[in-house]
Design a protein that fits this description.
alpha/beta
Length: about 150
């Protein structure tokens, strides 16, 4: 039996989360290669549509990673992101998709160990949920079988 390897899209703010991910790599800390990092200027720039599109295109999980509360380089971008994540989680639940497929975390640039730990834990959480139900519909839609 083949083990399910989830695809995770991690939207990481440039100043903190992306730097923490880079530090995790520099420290040779292991985290799954299937965590695809998308660097954004600020987690507050991750809009509802970005999270939903990542899931629609087949990501099994989406993680939004920003600066620590009170330390956002753009004042309150991380707070805005947290509100959007909560909104999208409710939306996912309403359409029958597990809200746990979407997460929000905060960290500072020096938290490489935290980034690796979160990436591993989130991947394991998504692995337990199984493949994204939307992904199963993608081949059928591409073949013209679903309206």
């Amino acid at each position: 039996m083949e083990t399910f390897e989830p695809v995770i899209v991690a939207f990481c703010c440039h100043y903190c989360a992306y730097t923490a991910a880079d530090m995790a790599g520099s420290m040779r800390l292991n985290y799954p290669a299937n965590v695809k990092i998308v660097r954004v200027p600020c987690s507050g720039k991750v809009d509802t549509i970005h999270m939903l599109k990542a899931l629609e295109k087949g990501a099994d999980g989406v993680l939004v990673a920003g600066c620590l509360e009170g330390d956002c380089h753009f004042k309150n971008g991380n707070t805005k992101a947290a509100h959007r994540v909560a909104f999208v989680q409710k939306l996912l639940q309403e359409v029958g998709i597990e809200p746990e497929r979407l997460g929000m975390v905060t960290m500072s640039a020096g938290m490489g160990m935290r980034f690796a730990k979160i990436a591993n834990e989130f991947t394991e959480q998504i692995r337990k949920l199984g493949p994204n139900p939307v992904r199963a519909a993608i081949p059928a839609r591409a073949a013209g079988k679903v309206a």
